[in-house]
Specification:
Layout: H1 13-37, E1 40-47, H2 53-61, E2 69-72, H3 79-82, H4 88-91, E3 99-104, H5 113-117, H6 122-141, E4 144-152, H7 155-166, H8 177-184, H9 186-200, E5 207-211, H10 215-229
Parallel strand pairs: 1-3, 1-4, 2-3, 4-5
Helix pairs in contact: 1-10, 2-10
């Protein structure tokens, strides 16, 4: 059943790139404050397949220090992890002081794909809906800034993006059998999302909906909104002095021919002058 997506005026590419660069510079400023203040930040990215979660995360982290801001995208649980408390394998990836964790999908797998595809039992699902708000309140009570984004996209746009991946060698890996099945289970996913919101849209960690029909707009909107939620301040970085290089009077470099040089592939791309 086709949905009518909200009407969005597409941001011009030059305007988009300029604003993205400005926001990314602010993210670097925010990162420095998070590190200096010891703040712990968790940002959850959930939503429809092909809704633009991954590309948004990529723009957020592009210029950040991977030692401060890291991406968590967990594979399927192992047999041992299936025997653990459901939230256990996520706990070990939570941030320490001065860290930002961006979760490309999270514990909400249980309320989405596991529920729809039958990968969990009804009892496990109901237990999750009960425990998730309790778990998140504990995180917030302990001082973690928890932000949850849900990326929304129409069924027509989702299918268009799926088809664009079929023959794209750079993005073909992003199209799995489970992703394709989401087309036939669109209504089931909608019902699962609605019920998930009823139980887990809590005051301490509300769901923020991202209209992602236009990827440029959704990226700018998410980054701008995330910056507004973190109470960061601009900090002046310590001045770094680059010392003068001392003369290498007692060193002579060995001949380059003695090293294993990689082939100069770039040289093959240079066209000879006419």
């Amino acid at each position: 059943m086709s949905q009518s997506p909200p009407t969005l005026r597409r941001v011009k590419k030059k305007v988009y790139e300029a604003e993205l660069a400005r926001l990314q510079a602010e993210l670097v400023t925010m990162q420095q404050w998070v590190k200096a203040s010891g703040t712990r930040v968790v940002v959850i990215f959930e939503g429809r397949d092909a809704a633009g979660k991954g590309s948004t995360i990529k723009r957020i982290t592009e210029y950040l220090n991977p030692r401060v801001a890291r991406i968590v995208a967990l594979p399927m649980p192992t047999e041992r992890q299936r025997g653990q408390w459901y939230f256990q394998r996520y706990v070990e990836h939570l941030p320490s002081t001065g860290e930002i964790v961006l979760m490309d999908r999270s514990w909400y797998n249980r309320a989405g794909v596991e529920r729809v595809m039958g990968y969990c039992t009804s009892d496990e699902y109901r237990r999750f809906l009960h425990q998730a708000p309790l778990f998140e309140r504990m995180l917030v009570e302990d001082g973690i800034l928890l932000v949850k984004y849900w990326f929304s996209v129409s069924d027509l746009e989702q299918e268009r993006r799926f088809r664009s991946r079929l023959n794209d060698p750079m993005r073909r890996w992003k199209l799995s059998e489970t992703d394709v099945l989401s087309i036939t289970k669109w209504v089931d996913y909608s019902k699962a999302k609605d019920e998930m919101f009823v139980h887990t849209d809590i005051a301490e960690a509300p769901w923020w909906v991202v209209e992602s029909e236009d990827k440029r707009a959704s990226r700018l909107n998410v980054i701008s909104h995330l910056l507004s939620l973190v109470p960061y301040e601009k900090l002046d970085p310590p001045k770094v002095r680059i010392p003068p290089r001392p003369p290498a009077s007692d060193y002579e470099r060995p001949p380059r021919e003695e090293n294993h040089q990689i082939p100069d592939h770039a040289a093959t791309l240079i066209k000879p002058k006419d």
